[in-house]
Amino acid sequence: MKPRVSIVLPAYNQAHFLPEALDSIFAQTCQDFELIVVNDGSTDDTAEVVADYQQRHAFTAIEQANQGLPAALNTGFKQAGGDYLTWTSSDNILLPNMLDVLSTALDQDPAIGLVYADRYLITDEGVNLGRFDLPDYDPDLLLHVNLVHCCFLYRSACMAQVGLYDPEFIYGEDWEYWIRISQYYAMKHIPAALYRYRLHETSMTSELVRGTARSMGYQEFSKRLRQRLPVKWYSGKLKWWWLRLTHPRHPAFVGRADWIRAAARAAGKEQLSAVGWFISVALSACETGLWIL
Fold it and tell me: Are 147 and 141 in contact, with CB atoms under 8 Å apart?
């Protein structure tokens, strides 16, 4: 029988976190899902952890030589058969009602292709650092920051429309993918924290501050996006972010607290939640390689 949700979990050398991630998946209140774990050439005990869990739970496990996150995602999603799709990292945690809440939101509005929700940040040890809320969906904002981030669910029709993840975007593969989806489907923010996102140096996403934009250069980065996307590209704004990235101490970018306050006011938040909103968006921007804090 076709599953309601397909979850892909790419794993690379995070065996010590993997049990927590797997436990959070199998503890979902929505049990109508399939799990596909892709071991992307791990050299630690990832294979042993996966084998141990397969003795207790039914799921698909795939092993491949290390090819990077986008390729691991593609390996998994080629096997996915669910109506709705998501993926998670081996160091992060789904809250028990994540699949229920997000799949219900998609059920209620056929015009929405992707829904995303807020999350808690946690330390290596799982200590809660606080909740960080994302702004509501704005297609212009999505062109500049990865506002979807890590807690999301999208229709399999989206993948049928836009294809798989682009392996050329080693650090911004998810952000580029959301932009592609946004050209065909509306998106919606669900104002609920449904995910625990771990901050640590060995995370698969820890080096994204120095990601695609810096390594490829602005011209090549924007060129690839323009080639990929049949949309008007806001090159002036992207150039501003690129200059902010490469010249953080330029006088034009010093003392930007006024911008932070203006952004918080524009979000219509109270003072404390505005700080959370800003940090949340800032973290997303870091992960796309388009901004340095």
Answer: yes
Q: 235: domain range?
A: 210-287
Question: How many domains, the chain?
Answer: 2
Write the DSSP string, 60-98: EEEEE----HHHHHHHHHTT---SEEEE--TT-EE-TTH
State phi, psi for 213 to the nearest 5 degrees.
Answer: -60, -45
- Measured CA to CA, the distance from residue 19 to residue 42 in angstroms comes to 15
Write down the pTM of the prediction.
0.76
Cβ within 8 Å of residue 177, ≥6 positions away? 162, 165, 166
For the chain, give the number of residues.
293
Q: How far apart are alpha carbons 248 and 237 in whole angstroms?
A: 16
- Tell me: the pLDDT tens digits for 74-121? 999 999 999 999 999 999 999 999 999 999 999 999 999 999 999 999
